């Protein structure tokens, strides 16, 4: 699958970027509203592991995680690149099955759970994991947060917004 990836514009779209960085709901749904179409998910990397950066252990707890790198895109343009860590001992079986299928955006799956998003400080080791897979580092247009359910922390997500969401509008 060939899609173009470009940095988020630095000046002309500052209000949109501020809104995206402040968002405490589903970024997938915002992208779909802007595109007026479903986002396509490109699964770049997925692995169950016991080896994650210290920041993930501190924020999520647990002993094993599903690490996943995806891109959301539409109209041949990448809209966002995402790195997520899902705590395997805290995830419902149906949720993990859908993640393993690799075709559903996390935002769609989270809609079936009662969740809260909590902003986090960036972590260089976490950020580097995403850049290693997708290139084009851009901490200016990126954010980290954790997904918490009623039972406790479930996921940690680092996402980078890309120019596709501006070009396609």
**Weakly predicted, low-confidence segments:** none
Radius of gyration of CA atoms, rounded to a whole number: 15 Å
Structural class, by secondary structure, is: alpha+beta
User: First CA to last CA: what distance?
Assistant: 22 Å
How many strands appear in the DSSP assignment?
6
> What is the average of the pLDDT values?
89
| Major β-sheet profile | 6 strands, antiparallel
DSSP helical segment count: 7
Spatial shape: globular
Strand content: 25-35%
* Proportion of residues in helical segments: 25-40%
- Secondary-structure element order, as H and E? HHEHEEHHEHEEH
What would you note in describing this structure?
This protein is α+β, with helices and mostly antiparallel strands and 169 residues long. It contains seven helices and six strands. Strands 1-2-3-6-5-4 form a six-stranded antiparallel β-sheet, sandwiched between helices. Strand 5 (142-149) and strand 6 form a beta hairpin. The longest helix has 11 residues, at 124-134.
